[in-house]
UniProtKB/TrEMBL annotation:
Keywords: Fatty acid metabolism, Lipid metabolism, Transit peptide. It comes from the Bacteria. GO terms for molecular function: hydro-lyase activity. May play a role in fatty acid biosynthesis and insulin sensitivity. Belongs to the enoyl-CoA hydratase/isomerase family. The keyword Repeat does not apply. This is Enoyl-CoA hydratase domain-containing protein 3, mitochondrial.
Length: 263
């Protein structure tokens, strides 16, 4: 069912325990204007507080997923304060996705370039049409994709990330899948089915456990091996003390479907 909309540029529709968030500037290839990034951040923050939602799908209206920042908006101003606001807002948006308790899946068609590619890389999972293309083309227009580089370099091998950043060339969806930028590249007719399958699989799990696991995954990434093991040992202890761990293990042993309590 449709949820209360933040504004016309970001649409939310809840389907049971799955929230669909649509970038809705199709004529601009869903370019991330300052207003749109703020609205998307607010929408995701609201979802993060909604305990009925267990998974989020982010997609784009029209012919493409997202073309990155709104270049016309960027050129409409020349003051440093405005540019700082734009890029800090973008970073806040990406951080919101990473810290959201629910897993986020990107459903990609058409193009995902610059900050749009960053958005895909930031999402926890991503599925793309085989015809979709990805790029960090800022270098072509004199604006190196430095913030997209953060998410990109944490998803694909270093030299592949540098290849995209230094050349600005488009990468096909099958190549993006091979590099690890997306989970799968599928036929256009299968995109909705595969994204829904991922979302339903995720949504069937304990929301409390998903929150614990997603947080721990990103926390341990930048830790040393020994630090990561110490940290995740504590996380598993915390997890084991949760009611949903007891319920899940008991259900497995008793060969029945678990009834999650969300705690």
């Amino acid at each position: 069912m449709p949820a209360a909309q933040d504004n016309e540029f970001v649409l939310r529709e809840d389907q049971g325990t799955i929230a669909r968030v649509t970038l809705n500037r199709p004529k601009a290839y869903n370019a991330l204007s300052l207003e749109m990034m703020r609205a998307l951040t607010r929408t995701l923050e609201a979802i993060g507080q909604d305990t009925t939602i267990r998974c989020v799908i982010v997609e784009g209206a029209g012919k493409g997923f997202c073309a990155g920042h709104d270049l016309r908006e960027l050129r409409s101003r020349t003051d440093r304060a405005f540019y700082e606001e734009v890029f800090e807002t973008c970073c806040q948006l990406m951080s919101t996705i990473t810290h959201l308790p629910q897993p986020v899946i990107a459903k990609v068609h058409g193009i995902a370039t610059a900050a749009g590619c960053q958005l895909v890389a930031t999402c926890d999972l991503a599925v793309a049409e085989e015809s979709a293309r990805f790029a960090t083309p800022g270098v072509n227009i004199g604006l190196f994709c430095s913030t997209p580089m953060v998410a990109l370099s944490r998803n694909v091998p270093r030299k592949r990330a540098m290849e995209m950043l230094l050349t600005g060339e488009l990468v096909s969806a099958p190549v993006a899948a091979d590099w690890g930028l997306v989970n799968e590249a599928v036929d256009a007719e299968a995109l909705e089915e595969r994204v829904t399958a991922y979302a339903e699989a995720v949504a069937s799990k304990s929301p409390h456990v998903l929150k614990i696991g997603k947080r721990a995954f990103y926390e341990q990434l930048d830790q040393s091996l020994d630090e990561a093991y110490r940290h995740t040992a504590q996380v598993m202890t915390e997890n084991m003390l949760a009611r949903d761990a007891a319920e899940g293990i008991d259900a497995f042993l008793e060969k029945r479907t678990p009834e999650w309590k969300g705690a």
